[in-house]
Structure formats: structure tokens, C-alpha cells
Amino acid sequence: MVRPLNFNRNNMKVSEEITAPTENKGRKVKLEMKQDSGRQNQFKIYPAATMYGLTAGLLMGVYLIILQMFEMDSSISLKFLKYLILIGVLGWGLHRYRQQNTNGTFFANGIRLGALATLISAATLIVINILVSLVMPEWAFNKFNLAIDSPGTFLITSGAIFFEVLVFGMVSTFIWLQYLKNRIRTEE
To answer: Residue 44 burial (CB < 10 Å; 0-12/13-18/19+)?
Structure first.
């Protein structure tokens, strides 16, 4: 005699089979995780990466412009703080993505999300640097204490900033992914 008992709650399906005592098989409990396919489609990686990248790039650009305006651009530690903005925005985006994605593709798609957001933020920062150097050349972002007085120094400075943002963004993406990897969204 077999009695199936099915119970559905919070996307978890529990089915229990109880066998007759003469068969001496005991009790079997089977747990199956069922993915909610509607939830996966709510979070789009490319638009989200664009939004987070633009947000991080604009905030870092505004921060660097403020440093240039108040002539505090020679402090390396103050310039380094712009990466806290990038780390925070990436963490926010990856955390939101983790809440939507609880399956095994989180890590691979999280790398994609972080890399695209980092690339977009680096490009946004360079575009801001170009615009600022056209409007107010003395406020252009400098690097290695090079004065932006020629196209060559502008390219060196912009390239260094671009690759620095890429490196810091990817390192912080991997750190956030390791932190969020085993965290599953809590049900309300």
C-alpha cells in the first residue's frame, strides 16, 4: 500500500512515500527544488550592467571633478577612494542579481554582469575626462602627476585610468561573487 503525499510551498515540492510494513523498505522522502522560470526572466544582464556601469562611471567622474575643483588631485589616497564607489555599485548590482538568480548560473552570469558594468564605467569615466578636458582643461583627470598639456599625456592618463578601473572592477567582482556565491535569497 503506497500513499503519496504532495506538498507545495515556496517553490519546493515535497513528495513522501510510505510503504507497507511487510515490504520493510522503510520511509522515503524526496525533496526537489523547482526553479521559478518567471523569476529568471525578470533580471536582464545587459541593461542592468549598463545601468550599474553608467552609475559607477558618473559617480566616479563627479568625485574626480570635485577633487580637481578643490585642487586636491595630488593626493593618491583621495583618488583611490573613487574605487570604493565602483566596489559599492558592483556589490549592489551583484546582490540584486543574486536575489533574482538562485541557480547554478549565478557565478558565470555574475562575472558577465561585473565585467560589463566595469567596462561601461571605465568608458564613462574616459568620456567624462574628454568632456572635462574640452570644457575646462585644468580640471582634466591627471595620473602620475602628468599635466594634461598634450594629446600624448592625455592618452597615457586616460589609458591608465581605463585599465585601473578594469582591474579594480574585476577584482572586486570576484570578491563580491565569492561572498555572494553560497547566499540564497531568503523568502519573505
So the answer is: exposed
Q: For residue range 54-107, what is the model confidence (pLDDT) as tens digits?
A: 999 999 999 999 988 888 877 788 888 999 999 999 999 999 998 887 777 888
Closest to 126 in 3D by CA, of 51, 54, 48, 45? 54
* DSSP character string of 9-34: ETTEEEEEEE--TTT---EEEEEEE-
Burial (CB count within 10 angstroms: exposed 0-12, middle 13-18, buried 19+), residue 125 = buried
| C-beta of residue 94 within 8 angstroms of C-beta of residue 111 | no
Q: What is the largest CA-CA distance in the chain?
A: 91
Q: Where are the beta strands (DSSP E) in the chain?
A: 3-9, 12-18, 27-33
